[in-house]
Amino acid sequence: MSSAYSEPHLEDTSSLDGHENNDKDEKNRNISKSEQKDKVKKNLKNKYLNKMFYLLKEFLIMVVVAIAYAAITNEPPKVSKSPAAYRFFPEDAYVTDWYRGEISDAINQARSADIAFVMFYAPWDAECQHARKEFQTVARFMHQQITFSAVNCWQPGSECKTQYSKVNKWPILIAYPTHGRGVQYNGPLVAAHMMAFLKKLISPFSKEETIDLMSQHDVVVTGNVYAGPFSRDFNIFYQVALRLLERDPLQEIAVTVETQTEYNLPELHIQMWNETLIYPYSEWEIESILNWILKNVHHLTTWISPSGSKSISLSSYLQPGPALILFTPRNPLATHSDYYSMLRAFAFDYNSCGVDQIINKLISIFHKKIQSDRKERYMQYLKLIEECSLKKFKVKRVTSANLWSNISYCLDMRYLRESLHQNNNNMINYFGGMKMLCSRFLANFDYGYEVPEIARFISDNIVYKTSKLSDIPDYRSPKNLKKAMRIEICKTLLIAQKYQHLAFSSELYNDDVVGGFDVKGLKCKTNRTLTFIAMDSLRYHHYAEKLGIDLSKRPNKTAVVILDDKMESHYIMSGEVTESNLRNYVYNYTKGSLKRALSSLASVRSESTHSYSNNRDCNFDNAEFGVRELSATNFLETISQTNKAVIIFYYSKQCSFCNGISYTFLTIAKYFATVQELLFARVDGDLNLLPWEYTMETYPTILFIPANQVSESRVFPMDMPINLQNLIGFILANLQTSLRLEAMWTLCDKAKFNPDVMDCFLSVRLQISQTIDRTLQEWRTSHNEEKSLLSLKLQHLHDLHNLFLQYPHNVTLAENLFAKLKLIEMQPPETTI
User: Fold this and answer.
1) What is the pLDDT of residues 624-646, one digit of tens each?
2) Residue 411 pLDDT more than 50?
3) Which spans in 164-283 are helix H?
């Protein structure tokens, strides 16, 4: 049993050993396979790393080669050379042109002269090219008194370009006195205005009496300072006078000086038409004095000069209330403008209503002085014209070894008496000539002395002798100096006449008493404040044209207009500008009897009008379709047409978005061209001054005016985009029933694709059905007299509905039915068809 049992046991054992051996072999085989896989992976990884290493090595080699090649072939970037500098002014001009931008040399030259006038320019700038001719004219006339230079501040790499690289506007004109800072010229780039500026720069202090200055200026600044050698107070006041030329290029503020014989504290006061202000002596410094003057001055009348670059100078005069604007030529080389003096005298009368008797008396004195000066200036002008046209002055230029002194002018009593009694002083007074520098010296002598005795007396007290004491002729002798002064005055007159003939009111030609209403104190009587301003009609004619005034057709290019900004209205003075007409004009304005002007640039045809011609003269009725151009002259007539709805497009040439809207508006006009009861028009809102109820503040704007219902006008909503779909919906929504149906049918007839056509006619039928429902409701609530008319309307609506169901393209039947419907809507309720 045991053996029997043991054998099977052994057999089982052997079988187990065989399985164990097999498992070991399999394990060994599995291990060997995994090791092989690991080895393969390692080999692949090593090969990949080797390839990456070689690639990186090759990339680095390529980078090194590229860097080396770039280093070998490295060159500076190629930049085009700046153009060579060239002369801006011709060589024969009286202007030193530093066209290479040598600003240091230019400033040194300017400082070495008594007064130098320098123009900093950019050769490509249009303003500089315009100013070049004017600058040359000034230099040709005043080169003996002033040194003229020009510096090119745009030449790349130049000294001036390096120092002033952020200048935004050219040209810049600066006058350099011998001492002190430069004075910038901020006036017009016109030769006559530059000459007036330089003449004032040479002699910044006015020499007339205060009463004479107040008759010409609203503001007079007077300084009482010690003028001894090295006087700091006088130097500061002199610099203030020069700085005022920068701030006041039109020279509205007169500056005069009274000198002290002994040193005292300086005094300064401003004299105006209704008050006198004294400078509180806190500190005698340039900036403090200048700021105090500009802060406290106010004008009764003033010239204004808008710069044109977002200027608010004009709006500051129009915002407080209505303003009376005088457009008249201003000649800067003449110290007198007759029409402006007339305006000042009128303004004194209009505002003389205060309770202060002293001020009223001063106003009365100023008024009388202005009126007397107007006639005196006119007579002086006539004498000056006669003398300069008949006489030719020649000055002998003989060099003298002796030095000349101003005292030599005082020695010849014969010439002094002659200058006091003959009419030559009229020329000096009119064109702002000089007074004698030696009047105080001559006051100490009796006119009966003989010249040699005076000469011997003076020769003992002065260092320099004059050639007047010898037989050597001197062109700087008193006689020749007077001749030179007359030549200078006549030359100034010639240039002034060439710029603009001096204009005088026709009332000065006769001795008749000025008529018209009495306007004295009218400001307080009517409680209407007027601001009085003047504008140069030679330079600002476009402002007048915007108001509908053609200055080229006005006597002496002079016109008057009252502009009320708050009421959005203006009133143009008709007839010639005279004092009597001006009185009547303002009096009627205060009474409210003037008619608002509706003129516009569209009705102004002048050589100076800067606008494009419109198509107001084209034959609109014969055109297939179009948009009528409206102006202020035909606007009311057009919108008041019977049985026509008007759609108006407001635009402006400054509105870039209006160009795109114009095409959309023209497309709408083409769609509705066959609808006779619709009129499409446009109007330039900038060039046309329309009634205030039809004036728009924004562009583009579309206005719909229903037929026979002007008061029911509608403006296209500002919050909706102006496109074809919205504009069609806006027009259809505001049309009457029959006209809306006809317009919708017209649009359907213009459709090109069948699906659109079918949808369009479906919407027309739906609209007809809604109209039938509304008409039935009206019929049920109407009186017996109206039911017959509504029944006939219902019949035509049913015929239209049936027509669009069967023959929607039958134009003849559709037009007949629409015509009948429109006739019914126009009939009053008590009549029937």
Assistant:
1) 557 888 887 788 888 887 778 88
2) no
3) 191-202, 210-216, 232-247
* Domain annotation covers residue 293: yes
Q: Is residue 428 pLDDT above 60, yes or no?
A: no
Q: Is residue 227, in this structure, part of any structural domain at all?
A: yes
| 606 and 624 share one domain | no
Cis peptide leading into 700, omega within 30 of 0?
Answer: yes
Average pLDDT over residues 548-565: 87
Say if residue 311's pLDDT is above 60. Answer: no
**Of 611, 646, 675, which residue is a domain's last?**
611
User: Are 211 and 261 in a shared domain?
Assistant: yes
Domain of 289 in residue numbering reads as 203-299
Candidate from 22-31, 513-522, 668-677 with smallest mean pLDDT: 22-31
CA atoms of 490 and 392, how far apart (whole Å)? 10
Among 193, 212, 238, the domain-final residue is: 193
Please tell me the chain's helix, strand, coil percentages from 3-state DSSP, rounded to the nearest 5.
50, 10, 40
Residue 434 above 70 pLDDT?
no
- Are 688 and 760 part of one and the same domain? no
500 CB neighbour count, 10 Å cutoff:
19
Residue 13 corresponds to which amino acid? T
672 Cβ neighbours under 8 A, 6+ residues apart: 678, 680, 731, 743, 746
CA distance 210 to 254: 10
User: Which ranges in 654-753 belong to alpha helices (H)?
Assistant: 657-671, 724-733, 737-750
Q: Are residues 35 and 178 in the same domain?
A: no
Mean pLDDT, residues 248-271 = 88
Greater confidence (67 vs 152) lies with 152
Q: Are residues 803 and 768 in the same domain?
A: yes
The answer to whether residue 434 is domain-embedded is no
How confident is the model over 63-114, as pLDDT tens digits?
888 777 766 666 655 556 777 888 999 988 899 999 999 999 999 998 889 8
Domain count, the chain: 6
Distances (CA, A) of 510 to 382, 506, 513, 581: 15, 8, 9, 16
CB of 335 closer than 8 Å to CB of 431:
yes
Provide the CATH number for the domain around residue 271. 3.40.30.10
Residues 131 and 70 in one domain: no
121 or 685: which leads in pLDDT: 121
The whole-angstrom separation of Cα 569 and Cα 566 is 8
Query: What backbone torsions phi and psi does residue 198 show, to the nearest 5 degrees?
Result: -70, -35
Mean pLDDT for the chain overall: 75
Residue 592 main-chain phi, psi, to 5 deg = 75, 25
The answer on 723 and 627 residing in a single domain is yes
> What mean pLDDT do residues 25-49 have?
68
Those residues with Cβ within 8 angstroms of residue 52's Cβ, 6 or more apart along the chain or in another chain: none
Q: Which of 511, 606, 610 is nearest to 557 (CA)?
A: 606
To 5 degrees, how large is the angle CA 540–CA 546–CA 549?
80
Partner residues linked to 571 by β-bridges = 562
Contact 618, 612 (CB under 8 A): no
Q: Return d(Cα 479, Cα 175) in angstroms, integer.
A: 32
Work out the pLDDT band at 31, boundaries 50, 70, 90: low
Task: Specify the 3-state DSSP secondary structure of 804.
Answer: helix
In this prediction, residues 798-821 reach a mean pLDDT of 64
pLDDT reading at 380 higher than 70: yes
Whole-angstrom CA distances from 246 to 252, 300, 432 are 12, 22, 20
Give the residue among 227, 184, 251, 196 at the shortest CA–CA distance from 495. Answer: 196
**Which amino acid is it at 514?**
V
85 lies in a domain? no
CB burial readout 280-317, b (16+ within 10 A) else e: eeeebebeebbebbeeebebbbbbbbeeeeeeeebeeb
Percentage of the chain lying above the pLDDT 90 cut: 18
Residues 109 and 254 in one domain: no
Closest CA to 328 of 511, 576, 147, 30: 576
